[in-house]
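Lab notes, practical 5.
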Amino acid sequence: MSLTDTAIKKAKPDAKARKLYDERGLYLLINPKGGKWWRFKYRFDGKEKLLSLGTYPDVSLKDARDRRDESRKQVAAGIDPGEHRKAKKSAKEERQANSFEVVAREWFAKYSPNWSANHGDRIIRRFERDIFPWIGGNPVANITAPQLLEVVRRIEQRGALETAHRALGNCGQVFRYAVATGRAERDPTGDLKGALPPVKGTHFAAVTEPKKVAEVLRAMDGYEGTLIVRCALRLAPLVFVRPGELRHAEWSNIDLDAAEWRYTVSKTDTLHIVPLSTQAIEILQELHPLTGRGRYVFPSARNPKGDRPMSDNAILSAMRRMGIDKDEMSGHGFRAMARTILDEVLGFRPDYIEHQLAHAVRDPNGRAYNRTAHLPERKKMMQEWSDYLDKLKAGAEIIPINQSA
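Output from the prediction step:
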């Protein structure tokens, strides 16, 4: 008699494995621990063979019969079901071994030791974010130019044309490596020459001019790199501290409730207070879930524990990729920008500005002011400064330097 679902559910394990037969070679093997395995017994080339069809209840009685019937058709056609399964598995494993992602990671492992750490990190992140999710599992030899173009155009459509060009170039390196190692016959990126529009260089003039400052700020707001670098770029003009002080900012020195950042100025070995505007607080609150458990606000990308600060080149490299030339803007440039505009445009007292720049400022008797000097006035100045930068980015009417309203 053929099996029923009720009989299968009621079947209990014995001390030894036992079989419940269905029909046409199908049976259910019940092991002593209660596991229930479908088996198909068949003969091929005069030999008796067994084929596993899955476990019950994951594979129902109906599904097991369907699988048995498919296997019987293969036997009738002169195909051994067991060998056919092995061949399919082998072919799948070969495809996976020669997938674009596997070949790309092999290429990266071979050549990345010769690159700077930052360069290598950018390349592998580009693959992981923009390439692997779409074609990483495809056999490298089967990827066509139209498929690749679809992937890089997805990058272009989000406004990252330069990244799209770089991604296409990196893919070309992987394809040429695949050709050299016998896993592909050609590099399809050659067919895509001219398929992406060219990248137009962007240059910014003197950053002490409000109009040019607005352009720089908008470019930095559009930065497409990591959240850590993006937040550092956005915070730098708001606090205008020395680049090394920004990189080494520690969460333990930042009081978000009091809206203050207190640290020791390395150059003078004195305590300094940076009032934090509401805009600066928002940036730090956005970043805190990511880096707040570590020591540094802006940790190195190569140090997951967060106990090393980002490199001194991280912000500068990001600015260069955005087209901000090294002769026109540097990490110290934010300080010059703030000093000029706070004085000549916003009209704040020079001694307030000098205090905020952590420069030595002395009273009429030649004594250095203490670290809390003019703190209420500086808090007001820092908030007005952040509000002014927001207005610049939004395209507000700009008063040129050395001209009155």
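Observations recorded by the TA: DSSP finds 15 helices and seven strands in the chain. Residues 202-206, 401-405 have pLDDT under 50 and may be disordered.
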